[in-house]
Design a protein that fits this description.
single chain; about 425 residues; seven-stranded parallel sheet; four-stranded antiparallel sheet; 17 helices; about 40% helix; about 20% strand
């Protein structure tokens, strides 16, 4: 008899209680076992992925999915290598659980500690991104959280084999509850999952705007994620234009469907005549469709006219919109209105301009003279990421291990009661220990 989602969630909750007591060596051994099992079964994984790609090709041809979704679905040798390396990188990270974050001596023999602890049960809902599974599971193992994974139907075969291999490896490591890692399939189960605030402590969506907005609107469970990846590059009047071109091309073309790919380039008006045409030529050489504002079209009249809707669009493809701005403050204002709070960059050799941009742009990642494609947990050295958050609470930007723990207060006393302090007979000393 198939296990119901409620029983899966209940068992995951029970598993989360025992996971919190696992020591670092046990978790690291489990991660190495997972990396080995995936590495040894790479060919099987790629064969299962081929099944998904074959079906996805039909969906692509019928218009049911776009090229961006198809690209995210595909695994190759490079992605497999990064997948395994990401797991091992997590293994070598510092254990985030049971760390003393802060401590206060309240009185003699009465000490208070703030100590990191797992969040509990994390529900992850993602679309055609099978490499999410090892990323999430490795971070969950290290941070001692239970997970319930819901992947897109397009990656069904890949999701199943990856989860199977991970569960096999973990179960052979000892001390890991079988129900710590779970995979569910149906769309109906998503709605059920979102109602289970009794068992699930956090929901992380990995997908497009529609998915994220649906989840945020239909659950009482805290949601960590981002709806859009509308990233900007501002080319300042004091930019090194060679750097600007290299970065702009990389940020758009290296992986156009990524959420950290640039979608809008803002160009200082002093660069329109002598530099903008060069940038457009390079974009067109790279196969990028260019859209531009009316002011820019005076200098590159052959490109498409950008509309207000373009400034608020995540293309996820080889399309770029370009807009002229009169100064850095005009650029910042545009970003703070149309940006998604993901990652934005300034190209400039002027330290004062860089500082202004860094301080005033309200995004999770603010870069100077570097591609927006660096906004990634693996590249940040987080080992892997569960997603990128544009929220301003708990975790922001690429979320790795530290974003999967919270804290509790532990107090150690020696028989104290509150009454003497309330009556004024005793006073707190409040001396910081840590």
């Amino acid at each position: 008899m198939a296990e119901t989602l409620e029983s899966i969630a209940q068992n995951a909750k029970l598993a989360s209680y025992s996971l919190a007591s696992l020591d670092t060596l046990t978790k690291n051994n489990a991660l190495e076992a997972v990396a080995n099992n995936i590495e040894q079964n790479k060919d099987i994984i790629l064969k299962e992925n081929e099944k998904d790609l074959k079906e996805a090709q039909k969906l692509l041809e019928s218009g049911e999915i776009n090229k961006s979704t198809y690209n995210r679905l595909k695994l190759d040798e490079n992605k497999m290598r990064d997948m395994v390396q990401g797991i091992r990188d997590v293994k070598h990270l510092e254990d985030p659980v049971n760390k003393k974050l802060w401590a206060m001596g309240m009185d003699t023999g009465l000490d208070l500690y703030r100590v990191s602890c797992p969040i509990g049960v994390i529900g992850v809902i993602f679309e055609a991104r099978p490499d999410v599974i090892p990323q999430i599971c490795s971070l969950a193992i290290k941070s001692a959280n239970a997970v319930i994974l819901k992947g897109g139907k397009e990656a069904y075969n890949t999701n199943v084999i990856l989860t199977k291999l991970i569960k096999e490896a973990v179960s052979q490591s000892g001390n890991f509850p079988e129900s710590a890692i779970n995979l569910i399939f149906s769309r109906e189960e998503v709605a059920q999952m979102l109602s289970m605030d009794k068992y699930i402590d956090l929901i992380i969506p990995r997908g497009g705007n529609a998915l994220v907005q649906y989840i945020k609107s239909n659950t009482k469970i805290p949601v960590m994620g981002h709806a859009d990846g509308i990233c900007h590059i501002y080319i300042d009047e004091k930019a090194d234009v060679k750097k600007a071109t290299d970065i702009c091309i990389d940020a758009k073309t290296q992986y156009p469907s990524a959420c950290n790919a640039v979608e809008t380039v803002l160009v200082h008006e002093s660069l329109l005549e002598n530099y903008l045409p060069q940038l457009v030529i390079e974009y067109e050489k790279a196969g990028v469709t260019v859209k531009a504002c009316e002011r820019c079209k005076e200098f590159v009249p052959h490109v498409q006219l950008a509309t207000k809707e373009d400034w608020a669009t995540e293309y996820g493809d080889k399309i770029i919109s370009i807009k002229a701005v009169k100064d850095i403050f005009d650029a910042i204002a545009h970003i703070n209105v149309y940006g998604s709070g993901h990652t934005d960059c300034i190209i400039s050799e002027d330290k004062q301009s860089i500082d202004i941009f860094m301080n005033l742009v309200d995004s999770a990642g603010v870069f100077a003279n570097a591609s927006t494609r660096f906004a990634d947990g693996f590249r940040y050295g987080l080992g892997a990421e569960v997603g990128i958050s544009t929220a301003k609470t708990h975790a922001r930007g690429p979320v790795g291990l530290e974003g999967l723990v919270i804290y509790k207060y532990k107090m150690y006393g020696s028989g104290q009661t509150v009454a003497p302090y309330a009556d004024g007979k005793k006073t707190f000393i409040h001396q910081r220990i840590i």
